[in-house]
Amino acid sequence: MIKKLHQDIVKGKITSTELTQNCLDEIDAKDKKIGAFLDVYKEEALELARKVDEKVLKGEEIGLLEGIPCSIKDNMCIEGKITTAASKILENYKAAYDATVIRKLKKAGSIFLGKNNLDEFAMGGSTESSAFKKTKNPLNLERVPGGSSGGSAAAVVAGMANWALGSDTGGSIRQPASFCGLVALKPTYGRVSRYGLMAMASSFDQIGPITKDVEDAAIILDAICGADKNDNTTIDKKTDFEKNLKAEIKGKKIGVIKNLPKKGMSREVEKGFDETIEFLEKQGAEIVKIEIPHIKYSLAVYYMMITSEVSSNLARFDGIKYGLSLSDKSKNILDVYLQSRETGFGDEVKRRIILGTYALSAGYFDAYYKKAQLVRELIKKEFEKAFSQVDVIATPTAPTQAFKIGEKSDDPLEMYLADIYTVTANVAMVPAISVPVGRNSSHLPLTPSSGRRGNSRDLPIGFQMMGKWWEEQELLNIAKGIEEGKEKA
Amino acid sequence: MIKKRITSEEVKKIAALARIKISAEEEEKFSNELGSILDFFNDISEVDVNGVNKFDHYQSAENQTREDKVEEASKEERGNIKENFPTRKDDQLSVKVVLGK
Predict the structure, then answer these.
(1) What interhelical angle do A347-360 and A298-313 show, nearest 10?
(2) Which residues of A touch B95 (CB under 8 A)?
(3) Separation CA A479–CA A245 (nearest Å)
(4) Which of A468, A460, A388 is nearest to A432 (CA)?
(5) A148 classed as catalytic
(6) In which band, very low, low, confident or very high, does the pLDDT at A453 lie, cut at 50, 70 and 90?
(7) Confidence of residue A442 (pLDDT cuts 50, 70, 90)
(8) Is A409 an annotated catalytic residue?
(9) Which of A135, A334, A352, A388 has the maximal Cβ count within 10 Å?
């Protein structure tokens, strides 16, 4: 969609102001019901749009992303703007600097419509744990949009933004894309800078696009990736994802995991997955059964490591330099920490901090975190072996379609188990893409007013592919093949 | 040996370490919830990790270093940082006494 919008702007068929006003109108009309946004930058967005329109009128060249409105998950810092991580502890926190991805997108001319809702501190799979509001799935308002980047996905599928940025630690952009019928790509760990992304689990977090189609994801990845001196875990691997994008299925080796855990997988998801594999085979791909013997441990490895990293990363929220501070109600400095954190953090955040602190504490570190680290390396080696036999590895993105609001929020363990297919990509640090398949797989935005009340046959299903480290191009190209195949069907 | 259950007492101790003042009800609630999650973690105790080495997916990364010199923050950045101070005395962050009374 982005290329077409860009061409329309350049040709004068539409102005950036019109595009931006359209999005703002949609936000006005729908967001009270959907709750995708925590903050909207109406005046600034229109002002930036006006500037782009002036450039076009003068005949100046504009970039692909220039003048096209998007929205950002509220755990990424935009200088001078309130950035909350959907937490009470940062309700009034004004970001002191731009995240690197924001700086890059500003340079590319993107227009930020505002900030999207998320699970508090990106911990969750439904956006239900946000301290401020629950986001509804625009395709069916009784259901969740997924999480933790639920607001971002909802904004795009409801036509309130043309694309959005989310963050992914264990599936947080892929699963919402899967629930909302969108495309999402988690880059290889180290591809995109995490500077300015509020850290959840530092050895898992990555930022990625949530878009209506594969080409858009390629365009945004081009804009946001690259080594950054402010993030020592980034590395430069020069690639032109959009320029090298072409639908490719024939001759590709698609790996299907022999011992993939199937507990909790719904019939619809299984059907959607199998049909896509059949389609790929018909188009000339070779389906190869592979083994990743230790994949059954990836969920445990994930939760053990991320809770530990979370407990460390969230120690900075202590009521001292910024954020909620119950200093008035505190007797001494220790009390400031204890009270500010007790009041500022929600249940899920506290749960994970306590788990993580326990896992890292004396006597448990070796058995928990250190052990998990080593199992992680084992899993990575098994992925390396698998990639010597296949180009990509396919799984469903999530075991079910979008579930009902409130359905899983009572049982934290049940919520964790639903991450089963996405976490492995973060554990192995490989790139992964989710593309919509199944009945309602159109990438055209469906509005709540479209009349569909939604039974599970109408809900989108996500098809996930994991690629070799640094091979996002492969993922994008096969995904493009799937997308074009659906359009022809 | 990984313990299978976490008692309310332990939750209380851990919360104190994590600097979070949880209530008695929360101690009980977390003790139950965390117990079942820890059971689930126990699976990895059976994995043999003998001889497992670090897998470097960067392929050719080097440690990145920079000159040890101060890079000043801009006036705007400084302003934003100060604006976030919960308690302030002129340009300085004010905090409760750390040592002594």
Answers:
(1) 100
(2) 320, 333, 336
(3) 10
(4) A468
(5) yes
(6) very low
(7) very low
(8) no
(9) A135
Minimal CA separation from A458 to chain B, in Å: 33
Six token digits for residue A376: 């992680």
Q: Can you tell me the distance from the alpha carbon of A73 to that of A318, in angstroms, rounded to the nearest whole number?
A: 23
Of B36, B43, B49, the CB nearest to A378: B49
Report residue A256: phi and psi, to 5°.
-120, 130
A37, containing H or E segment: strand A37-40
Residues of B in contact with A371 (CB under 8 A): 44-45, 47, 49
Q: What is the pLDDT of residues A327-373, one digit of tens each?
A: 888 889 999 999 999 999 999 999 999 999 998 988 888 888 999 99
3-state secondary structure of A165: strand
Residue A334, judged by CB atoms within 10 A of its CB (0-12, 13-18, 19+), counts as: middle
Instruction: Compare CB distances from A96 to B18, B57, B80 and report the shortest one's residue.
Output: B80
Within 8 A of A317 by CB-CB distance, chain B residues are: none
Please tell me the distance in Å from B49's CA to the nearest CA on chain A.
6
What pLDDT, in 10s, does the model give residues B7-17?
Answer: 889 999 999 99
pLDDT in tens, A186-243: 999 999 999 999 999 999 999 999 999 999 999 999 999 999 999 999 999 878 999 9
Sign of CA dihedral A367, A370, A376, A377: negative
Tell me if A75 sits within 8 A of A124, measured CB to CB.
no
The predicted pLDDT at position A439 comes to 60
User: What is the model's pLDDT at position A440?
Assistant: 52
> What is the value of pTM for the model shown?
0.95
**Which has the closest alpha carbon to A247: A14, A12, A476, A489?**
A476
